[in-house]
Amino acid sequence: MLYFTGFSVLPPFIAWGVAQAGDATRELIDPQSTQITQIYGTARSAGGLRRSEVVLGALASRDVGMGERPRQLISYIAPSAPATRRPAIGCEPFLRPEFGFTPNWYRAAVGVDFGARWHADPAYRKETVLAMRAELRWRFPGTAVGGIDRPDAPLDLLTGVHGACVVAGIYGIPIRYAADQWPTCEHRYLGDEEVDHLQPPDLRTNPFFGDLLRQVDWIAAEEGKVEGYLNWQGVLNTAYRLRGQQLFCDMLETPERARHLFECVCSTMIEGAGRLHARQRTSEVGVDFFTVSNCLVNMVSPARYAELLLPLDRRIAEAFGCLGIHNCAWAADPYLDHYATVPHLAYVDMGLDSDLPRARATFPHARRAIMYTPMDLANKSLAEIRQDLTRIASEYAPCDLVVADIEAGTPDERVGAFRGICGELSRGR
Asked: What does each C-alpha distance from 392 to 7, 355, 356, 388, 396 come to in angstroms?
């Protein structure tokens, strides 16, 4: 079995001490010491792990007669992209912060134009990604913020393309682009008859999906590997982009209509991601997981979620064999028991108002995460932030702390202070 990181292909065990190991051990470890050096740098910059802890965490992930370690996903925010997930490496810090900044932050910092060209022209996008990574390295040296601990080649030129509008774009919903914002969908919603007769698009001939594959081909030729992830969103999120608020009436008054729309969206998500993953594998990048974004789930009762949406989340999990659930920053309590029935669950996040001890007990094997809001980062005192993180460490960790959507004007020192507190609490546990 291989673990696919999305940035390299690693065995299910990683070791750095080749020179110190005996002959028998050398047969069991990866001789590419640069990989463990990179991993060590990531772990150290994120939370202060010692190199020996990296080895122990890596070796613990191989099957040594005690069962294979459950797969986990962690948060990943590429420069200017919405948050998504990537595979864990097995030695993450006790409190692992992941920071992300809005397009407006990057436009103010380095003048990037995130209009339609950014999403359609991978050559232009490469120029801007390099500029954004250089800015992050200047502001946050020696850290893993924005993935700057990894080399600039091959670059991830896929994550963030079309923002959260990929599936809606496949269905023909017009997308609006802006110089300083993520893309949004126009409010051109499907009518009753359009929904009733809706069929999943043929991705072999779909122009929107075809353009995405054209970009993938360019990235493969330019970078050698197609790193990164598209944001496929979740069934409910995309169905709302297609139907608007009428969707919630459908779920109550004409549930079969809502079910049909959900089925179409789910089928397109699975097929589209499958085709993209197959193309990425030809460039020696393996992606064998999926993330669903349930940002609107708090607008649906737990019973209605269980009836109409949970079966589709379960279907996606079975299709890919590894799933992350993004619950957004809401309290996840009403949905925890339903999420616990999803197979192959490797990641789940939620807001700070959730019942954290219950969540930790409910998901002992999945990587857990807190969506820590950018408003709290900017406006709370450092004492209040420390209090929050101390509580999280006590009631919920080990976990990620996802500080996404940081806006222009937030002092860089806030990021450094937050990261420093995470490191202190991780080392002191």
From this structure: 29, 11, 8, 6, 5
Q: What confidence score (pLDDT) does residue 427 get?
A: 94
Side-chain half-sphere of 36: how many Cα atoms within 13 Å? 23
Closest CA to 373 of 341, 414, 322, 314: 414
Q: Which residues of the chain have pLDDT under 70?
A: 1-68
- Which residues are CB-contacts of 321 (< 8 A; sequence separation ≥ 6)? 288, 289, 344
Rounded Cα distance between 182 and 163, Å, is 6
Listed residue (197, 199, 210) closest to 169, CA to CA? 210
Q: Which amino acid is at 118?
A: W
**Extended beta strands in 288-386, E state:** 290-293, 323-326, 345-350, 367-371
| Closest of 102, 123, 294, 293 to residue 182, by C-alpha | 102
For residue 49, the model assigns a pLDDT of 41
Q: Residue 70's pLDDT is what? A: 86
Contact assessment for residue 346 and residue 70, using Cβ atoms and an 8 Å cutoff = yes
Between helices 255-281 and 310-320, what is the axis angle to 10°? 20
Q: How far is CA 335 from CA 343, 358, 366, 387, in A?
A: 15, 12, 16, 26
- Cis? peptide before 93, omega within 30° of 0: no
Give residue 69's pLDDT: 73
pTM listed for this prediction: 0.86
Which amino acid is present at 238?
T
Tell me what pLDDT residue 400 has.
Answer: 98
Q: At what angle do helices 235-243 and 246-253 cross, to 10 degrees?
A: 110
Tens of pLDDT, residue by residue over 250-276, are 999 999 999 999 999 999 999 999 999
Which residue bears the tokens 């420390």? Answer: 386
